[in-house]
Amino acid sequence: MLDFENHKKRSNVLVLQLAPMIDVFVLIIVFLIKGTILEESAVLKPKGLDLAQSLSKETSISAPQVIITPESVEFKMIEKTRPLAEFKEDNFDPRDPIFQEFKNYIKQNSKVESANHINVISDRAMSYQVVYHVVKILRISGFESMLFVAEGDK
């Protein structure tokens, strides 16, 4: 017969190690938060503007905006508006103060990742020539990437 009274009880109980498990979950949460897009778009569509249509599912990044309307070109990053007539021909003077304002903006925001990107928002009926001249001026000023904003299916 077995002697149950003298038999030692096992003291090896499994202990759950919570600290490493919490560390792993924190890392997972951090990666999920960093990879989450919190908003659909950082671009606000101006009223009365009919944007071009696109089938692309890409989203725009948060970047300074240039809005080209039938009346004017609005440079949101320096809070300046110019009449559209100035961009109908390729005769922009490189000594125009707006070039220096663009360069100053880029220099002041050099540590911001999207400082040299521009979201170009234009009416779908806008002349390609006008859009080209606006983009050319932005490129000469030092902006590296033009992101043309369009909307998907309505």
Question: Can you lay out the helices and strands and say which pair or pack?
Answer:
Blueprint: H1 18-34, E1 65-68, E2 72-75, E3 80-83, H2 97-108, E4 117-122, H3 128-141, E5 145-148
Parallel strand pairs: 1-4, 4-5
Antiparallel strand pairs: 1-2, 2-3
Helix pairs in contact: 2-3
Describe this entry's structure for a reader:
By secondary structure, the chain is an alpha/beta fold. The protein has a domain at 65-148. Helix content is 28%, strand content 14%. It has helices at 18-34, 97-108, 128-141; strands at residues 65-68, 72-75, 80-83, 117-122, 145-148. It has a five-stranded mixed beta sheet, with helices on one face. Strand 1 and strand 2 (72-75) form a beta hairpin. The protein is elongated, with a radius of gyration of 28 Å. The model has no long low-confidence stretch (mean pLDDT 81).
Annotation keywords:
28% helix, five-stranded mixed sheet, alpha/beta, 154 residues, 5 strands, 3 helices, single chain
